[in-house]
Amino acid sequence: MKSIKKIIIVLIVTLSFLQTEAQTYKIDVSKSKITWIGKKVTGQHEGIVKFKDGNLIFKNKKLVGGNFNADMKSLTNTDQSGTSKMKLEGHLKSNDFFAVDDYPIANLIFKHIRNQGDNVYSIVADLTIKGKTNPVKFDLVVKKNSAKADFTLDRTKFDIKYGSGSFFDDLGDKTIYDDFDMNVNLVF
């Protein structure tokens, strides 16, 4: 009888440990992506940045953490082709914008997570681009094996000031807006 009680206690302790242990899910970098839209007075451009790696951490089926590395050298333009595409991509990768030779990785680390219910989480994260770290806020919608977030970033907070009307006068129709839109799709 004592041995049955011991076995039951061991099983209960083991099961309670398994239920509270965090589960880390690596993102599928071949299916996950960041889509960006940058706007200027005369129009806009859009493109993609691929992930180098990343993961989401769950505990008791609730999101409790996450961190991601974006491969800035993978930055591409998707609304142009040929010479225009190559020229824009080269300029975005240059020191005027993302300086990808010096800063090949952008990093995002979740700092605070608030469960809003229905698999929607309010996230405050530290985002590092070009060696500059700033907090960003966004909602992350989690589904079975995927997650999605849309948010807007002020590029000047990451020392990306080229063509910014906030820093340069008389740009006219050459002005590039400070905010750019991010659409993040994660598959894990």
Radius of gyration, rounded? Answer: 21 Å
> What kind of sheet is the major sheet?
8 strands, antiparallel, barrel
Q: How many helical stretches?
A: 2
Total beta-strand segments: 9
Strand content: over 45%
Question: Overall pLDDT, averaged?
Answer: 93
Secondary structural class? alpha+beta
Principal-axes geometry comes out as elongated
Instruction: Please provide the ordered H/E string of secondary-structure elements.
Output: HEEEEHEEEEE
Low-confidence stretches: none
Which sequence of strands runs across the widest sheet?
2-3-4-5-6-7-8-9
What is the distance, rounded to the nearest whole angstrom, between the alpha carbons of the first and last residues? 46 Å
Helix content: 10-25%
How is this structure best described in words?
The mean pLDDT is 93. An 8-stranded antiparallel barrel has the order 2-3-4-5-6-7-8-9. It has 188 residues and is α+β, with helices and mostly antiparallel strands. The chain is built from 2 helices and 9 strands; from the N terminus they run H-E-E-E-E-H-E-E-E-E-E. A hairpin with a 2-residue loop joins strand 3 (43-59) and strand 4. The protein has helices at residues 2-20, 82-93; strands at 23-26, 33-40, 43-59, 62-77, 105-117, 120-129, 132-142, 146-154, 176-187.
